[in-house]
Amino acid sequence: MMTHTGEKPFKCVLCAAAFSEKCALKYHKMTHSGEKLFKCDLCNAGFSGKNTLKYHVMTHTGEKPFKCDLCIAAFSRMDALKYHMRTHTGEKPFKCDLCNAAFAGKTAHKYHMMMHTGEKPFHCEMCDKSFLHKNNLNQHVVTHTGEKPFQCDLCDSYFSRKTSLKRHMMSHTGEKPFKCDLCDAAFSRKCDLKYHEMTHTGEKPFKCDLCHASYSEKSALKYHVMTHTGEKPFKCGLCDAAFSGMTGFKQHMMTHTGEKPFECDLCDAAFSQKQSLKQHVLTHTGEKPFKCDLCDAAFSRKNRLNRHMATHNGEAIQV
C-alpha cells in the first residue's frame, strides 16, 4: 500500500534518505558504514546490496536480459535500459536550476551541477589536485606511479591511458576517422581536426598576453611565449644547442645524424627541412612567389626579395 501512498516511514539518521521497506534502509546504512555483506564468488568484489551483486555477476556472464524494442541494444540493468530509451525519445527530465542545460540521466545532471559549484570530490593523495570524475583521478595517479598498464599488441609500446593506446593503434592501422568537410584532410585525433578547421576559418583563439600574436593551437602559443621568456627546454645531447620548440630541436638533430627525410620527386636532392624542399622545388617549376611591391621583380626565395628591397631603400648590401 505504501507504493500507492508514497509513505516512507523508515528514515536514515545520517542523511535525508527515507524508504518504504526496513530492509532497504538496512542496505542503505551500509553506504555510510562501508560494510559489504554480499561477495562475488568469481572475483573479490563486495557489495552492500543483493541487487548490486546480481548485476555485477552479469559482467562475468555477459548476460543482458533488458533489451531495447527500438534497436539492438541490450543491458544487464533495467535502469540502464531506461536511460538508453531516452536516446530514442529525446527526453531530458533532469534540468539545471542555474542555466538552460537538461540531461537524460541523474548522474550527468549531478556532475553538471558541480561545474557551477566548483566541487571536485575526487582528491589525489599524492598532491593537491582534485577532479570532477573518478576516471580522471585514476588517469592522474599514474603520472605519480609511472604505471603504464596498456600494452600495444603490435609493438613494445606501453601507455598509462587506454585512450592513448587506442590513438597509438591508429599509427599501425593508418586509420584517420576524423575527416575535414572543407578539404581532403583526415586525422586520427578529433582535436587535430578541430585545429585544422581553424586554418579554414582563420580562427586563432589562443592569444599572447605579452604581444599581439595569436594562434590556432594552444601548444603553438606555449612555444611562442618562450620567445619572450627565453626558455629553451629542448636541449641537444651532442652539442650546446637548445630550442624553445620540439620542431626546431628535431631539425637540429638531423644536422648530427645527416638524416634528410624530405626528398625531391623531380631529382635526387634531399633536405632535412620541409621548407628547404619547398624552396628547391621552385627551381624546377620556375615559380617566383615573392614579388616586389615597388617594381616588377619576383623571386623564388624570400631572402632574395629582402636583398632586392634593400636596393630600393638605398641600403648597402653585403656580398
Question: What would you note in describing this structure?
Answer:
By secondary structure, the chain is an alpha+beta fold. Among the domains are: 52 residues, Classic Zinc Finger (Double Stranded RNA Binding Domain); 80 residues, Classic Zinc Finger (Double Stranded RNA Binding Domain, 2-Layer Sandwich), CATH 3.30.160. It is 43% helix and 14% strand. It is built from 12 helices and 22 strands. The strands form 11 sheets. The protein has a two-stranded antiparallel ribbon. Strand 19 and strand 20 form a beta hairpin. 0% of the residues are buried. The mean pLDDT is 84.
CATH class of the domain at 206-285 equals Alpha Beta
Q: At the third CATH level, what is the topology name of the domain at 206-285?
A: Double Stranded RNA Binding Domain
Fraction in beta strands: 5-15%
Q: Quick one: biggest sheet?
A: 2 strands, antiparallel
Distance between the termini: 101 Å
Mass-distribution shape: elongated
CATH superfamily of the domain at 206-285: Classic Zinc Finger
| Architecture (CATH level 2) name of the domain at 206-285 | 2-Layer Sandwich
Q: Based on helices, strands and strand pairing, what is the structural class?
A: alpha+beta
Number of helices: 12
Using the CA coordinates, give the radius of gyration.
31 Å
Spatial order of the strands forming the largest sheet:
1-2
Let me know the average pLDDT.
84
Helix fraction by DSSP (H/I, runs of at least 4) = 40-55%
Oligomer class: single chain
Strand tally:
22
Low-confidence stretches: none
